[in-house]
Amino acid sequence: MDFSLNEEQKMMIETARKVGEEFGLEYWAEQDRNKAFPKECWQAICEAGLVGAALPEEFGGSGLGMFELALIIEELAAGGGGATLGQLFMINPIFGGVSLSKFGNAAMKAELLPRLVAGDLNFCMALTEPDAGTNSLALKTMATADGDGWRLNGQKIWITAVDSAEKMLVIARTQKPEEVARPIQGISMFMIDVKRAGLSFTPIDKMGTHTLSSCSVFFDNVRIEPHELIGTLHNGFKELLDVLNTERIVTTAGMVGAGRLATRLAVDYAKERKIFGKTPIGAYQGLQFPLAQSHAELECARLMNLKAATQCDLGQPYGTEANMAKLIGSQAALHAIERSAQTMGGMGYSKEYHVERLWRDARLFKVAPISEEMILNYIAIHDLGLPKSY
User: Fold this and answer.
1) What are the protein's UniProt keywords (predicted)?
2) Which of 57, 93, 184, 354 has the most CB atoms at less than 10 Å from its CB?
3) Hey, what CATH topology would domain 7-122 get?
4) Which residues are paired to 151 by β-bridges?
5) pTM, 2 dp
6) Neighbouring C-beta atoms of residue 384, cutoff 10 Å
7) Fold of 124-234
8) 287-315 pLDDT, tens digit each
9) What per-residue confidence (pLDDT) applies to 243?
């Protein structure tokens, strides 16, 4: 598998690097303090033509693929945004872009995708539920047939950036579990307005990722129109997997970028800091080796992520690779951030040196969008052939 870059890809990476550095550490620290959506940064990313890398040209995208998108996100995250940067791509080019471009009707594509690419429209996805969590097949939110449309009732939790979104991709049951032969049947996807009668949400106070809210969402007899169905009625779960697996890729790219950023901060500090005589602390192997180890781990996660993205672009199965990359990526990023903080000693605990924000944001991805334990379950069952335990 050849990961050498052509000139167009190199130019995209350079553009992403410049935008990422323009909105650097101080910008993200301010957004974190204010718990504010990074709209200026997102608009600059859109204006640079980076958002639509993997979306069709007819709707304003570049017609490239997940490989290019992963490279872009990694570079933007390394500029200062850290792991949260990947979430911006998760909510828009993935939740909005992938679902619409692959499964939306012609009218929805023509209306919404150009606005997404231009930065005029934000999305969110309502999947996780309080009593289901990782077990998406146990969801209880129900869209019941009502004339030519549906009525939606239920609750979701940990839904990202609802307050910044205009459109919400909702995953709901359209058939009851007792009405279907297999648990994956009877599930459908819809793209609805966030501002709609019967839809309400409340923010969740949390440790990190403050630039994007997390909310509990409530549906009370919400009307869904027939044209808002995304994909196949009752058989949307397999189509949802395309959204979830590409979500893994952008998440990992953000994690790798965050690890690169933390390592760079540690290396810069270690070159300048002197304690015992005139020797920089970066000369001591007790600090060198852990940084070198975490760098090697990040490179391995990066390569697996690019493999997943390449297989996705080629139309080949990539679920295993995307899950493995996410597993190792989250571990490698947190290792790099921890070692950066350790290298800085007491200053690594201060807000001034930014590592504490990188840690707070990255810690989420040990459990989201899928936990380490569930990825290990997936690998054990699908790749090792072990019996299913749940």
Assistant:
1) FAD, Flavoprotein
2) 93
3) Butyryl-Coa Dehydrogenase, subunit A; domain 1 (1.10.540)
4) 144, 223
5) 0.96
6) 7
7) Butyryl-CoA Dehydrogenase, subunit A; domain 2 (2.40.110)
8) 999 999 999 999 999 999 999 999 999 99
9) 96
